[in-house]
Each structure stands twice: as C-alpha cells, then as structure tokens.
Design brief:
11 helices, about 280 residues, oxidoreductase, alpha/beta, NAD(P)_OxRdtase_dom_sf, Aldo/ket_reductase_CS, NADP
C-alpha cells in the first residue's frame, strides 16, 4: 500500500475505506470485509452513528492495532473545547481504542476554534496521532491554519474528477496540509459511471471508470476513501496500484473539472441551517 507522509511525519495509507452512509447494522460486516480485502485505513465519524461497528470489526479482525489507521470526526453539536473533549473520549470508547490515527473537525460551524483546541489537547495526550479538518473551504482553512498551534495535517473535502480542488490543494500545500477526498465517485452524479473520457481510458488498461477515477486522484497525491457495501467492489477499488495514467490521460481527466460542488455550498444559508440542525 502506498502512503503519504503527513506534516508531523506520520505515514497514512493513500487508499482507505469510508463508512459514510453505511448503516450501523451493516458496518461491522463491511469493515471486516474491507480489512480482509487488505484495507488498513478506515474513515468514520460521530455523525455516521457507526463508530461502534468499526470498533467491533477492528477488535475481531486479528490485525494488530498499530497496523490500522483509523479516522473519526467531531460533529457540530459537539463543538467547543469542553464538549469536543468529552465527545472524543466517547468516540474512543466506541472504537475500543486508546487513540485514533487521525482526528478531524467535521464541519466549519459552531465554535470550531474551541473544537480545534480540544483536538490539539488530544494530540498532545496521545489520543490522536494527527489532527485536521474536513469541509474547510479556502477562507476558513487559511484563517484556522494561521492562528492554531498545530497545523492541520489533513483537510477532507469533496474531491472527484468534476470538482478537483486544484486551487485548494495549492493553498493547503503552503501549510503542509494534505488533501483527502470524500465522494471520489461523486456518488454517481453527473453520469459519473458512464463518462466517456473515463471509460475510454479504462479500456486501455482493462480498468473500470471507478478505478481510473481513483488512480487519477492518487497520482495527484490525494488520499481517497471509496465506500462500498459489496466485497467485490471493495476488491475492485483496492486494485488501482498496477497501472499508471500517462501525462496526456491526466490532462484529459483534468479537463473534466468544473471546480464547483455537485452537492452543496457552505455559503448557502439554507444549507448551513440544515446542517447545524441535524
């Protein structure tokens, strides 16, 4: 498995398994399958309500904890230094671990400055090996990165062939922060799985549209966490290290970029109201 080195020297697998929208009932099975396939990085969150399933799968896997890389995220309702601190301990209890490898702020709302101080405290106490943020647009990312004690190691953002986050990646690089993709398949939107450019490139290598899309992000140094509840798809998504896209193919995929979200905008007041009321 290829890795990326985070800004504190920690090595993180560039390919992981995400459990967003995996039900609590299915989560243990899915994570167990993913670990058996070979995944060693698992991404969950308080708001997914499946941390316990991840914890059960980890405990039963037989894989030493130090060989796994576990990420979780603090939700908006747990924002602020005191509440975030308590929620982090609760997440560790559910995950049946003394620490997580990566701890993120899930959304840039409520008292995220206080939340980040709780993350820094968790880092210093050994409860998190690295800390960072998620869904922080360039303006809020810069503001936090310039005024925190410990620079974010990661910013997890909507990143796929139609929204490639080129500008954000450049901004984050100045702070030593790694881009991590959620939604690498755009959840199938914009006719993702029948895109002619991705299909044509895939035929050259005997690869699927999904594999080409993951390979494109990986070659840009972006961490990916594709999700599937089907073991055969987990295997497919895992097998992206036996081919390399050419410069011309990378450029062709680069031209698919619309540089805008297919899901939501944090600048939309109605959406923000919806998020904070979840």
């Amino acid at each position: 498995m290829e890795t990326v080195k985070l800004n504190n020297g920690i090595e993180m697998p560039i390919l992981g398994y995400g459990v967003y929208q995996v039900t609590p009932e299915e989560c243990e099975r899915c994570v167990s399958d993913a670990i058996r396939v070979g995944y060693r990085s698992i991404d969950t969150a308080q708001a997914y309500y499946n941390e316990e399933g991840v914890g059960h799968a980890i405990r039963k896997s037989g894989v030493p904890r130090e060989e796994l890389f576990i990420t979780t995220k603090v939700w908006i309702s747990n924002a602020g230094e005191k509440k975030a601190k308590a929620s982090i301990d609760e997440s560790l209890r559910k995950l049946q671990s003394d620490y997580v490898d990566l701890l993120l702020i899930h959304q840039p709302f409520n008292d995220y400055y206080g939340t980040y101080r709780a993350l820094e405290e968790a880092y210093k106490a050994g409860k998190a090996r690295a800390i960072g943020v998620s869904n922080f647009y360039p303006d809020r990312f810069i503001d936090l990165a310039k005024f925190c004690e410990i620079k974010p190691a990661v910013n997890q953002m909507e990143t796929h062939v139609f929204n490639q986050q080129v500008k954000l990646q450049e901004i984050m690089k100045k702070e030593g922060t790694q881009l991590m993709s959620w939604g690498p398949f755009a959840e199938g939107r914009n006719n993702f799985f029948t895109n002619e450019v991705l299909e044509a490139i895939g035929r050259q290598y005997g690869k699927s549209v999904a594999q080409v899309a993951l390979r494109f992000l990986i070659q840009r140094g972006i961490i990916v966490i594709p999700k599937s509840t089907h073991k055969e798809r987990m295997i497919e998504n895992f097998n992206v290290f036996d081919f390399t896209l050419s410069a011309e193919e990378m450029e062709a995929i680069g031209r698919l970029d619309k540089a805008e979200s297919l899901f939501f905008s944090h600048y939309n007041p109605e959406f923000v109201e919806f998020l904070i009321n979840l």
